[in-house]
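The passage that follows is intended for readers who have already worked through the single-chain material. We present the inputs for a multi-component assembly, then the predicted structure in tokenized form, and finally a short commentary. You are encouraged to pause after the input and sketch how you expect the pieces to fit together before reading on.
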Amino acid sequence: MEGDIVQMGAYIGAGLACTGMGGAAIGVGHVVGNFLSGALRNPSAAAGQTATMFIGIAFAEALGIFSFLVALLLMFAV
Amino acid sequence: MATETQGAEQAADAGGLEFHPMDQFKVEPFFGSGDVAWYTITNATVWMALAVLAVFALLVLGSSRRAIVPSRIQSVAELAYGFIYKMVEDICGKDGVRYFPYIMTLFMFIVFSNFLGLLPLAFTPTSHIAVTAVMAMAVFLTVTVLGFVKNGVGFLSVFWISSAPLALRPVLALIEVISYFVRPVSHSIRLAGNMMAGHAVIKVFAAFTPLVLISTGIGLVVTPLSIIAITAIFALEVLVAFIQAYVFAILTCVYLKDALHPHH
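Having made your guess, compare it with the prediction:
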């Protein structure tokens, strides 16, 4: 019984942890959206900044992956 | 299957999915079955070896003829070489080009592990944090040692942002130190997490397909939808496989630039 409650808590926690990935989604969308709005104003400068955009995406995305990792740990390691 | 994870057993007990989406990441002996010792040839080592062989075939065999008018394989090899070379040169500067072979090696290994892992029944070595953590720690140690060798104690100025107001600098230094030591963690987990998540999603949709067919008429709607979803996500995964290898390489370049030119 007690183990079941712990298990339930772990699963609920895993689900809650995954909401963090929504934040990462907003962040990535923000990065790309701002890149695009800048790029459409000055298309000639856009090509040189694609790498910067990917670095920005990577940093924003990493934190979402952390929450996914927490969910996985709760599912399989706890 | 004595080594099945706890979650897999529960899914089987509950009569849920046909197979557990995380089962594909199990490291097992490639030939026969039994325990995994340090010398055992597992599916992880086999697919890593295949990735190395594929890189060798593309870069060494593919460009060995050195034709003036390149064949298709040679032009792919030249494209990959030029792509990474330009990236290293753009980010690290002229003196960073010395470290181009390291970044090229990392990129080619990761991109081939990712792409080979997309084959059906394949194993993706880069979906394991153990694999990516070794690569990320190697990058971290290389960059740190290189920074101290090149700049001496002056490398510590990477934490001391001289363009910020003086009162703010100690706070920023603390944040910079923390973010510096989180680098290998985020560097490795970004790659492993992306690969793991993508492959798990494909398997979840694959498990939906037979699950709903055997139940009611809902299956007639859900099964084609999940097959379409697998196709779409697979296409996305092909893109992600390349982008994550690119991101790993580009972040290595950024860290290397910090080591070579620590002054902001």
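Commentary: Chain B is about 65% helix and 0% strand. The mean pLDDT of chain B is 86. How closely did your sketch match?
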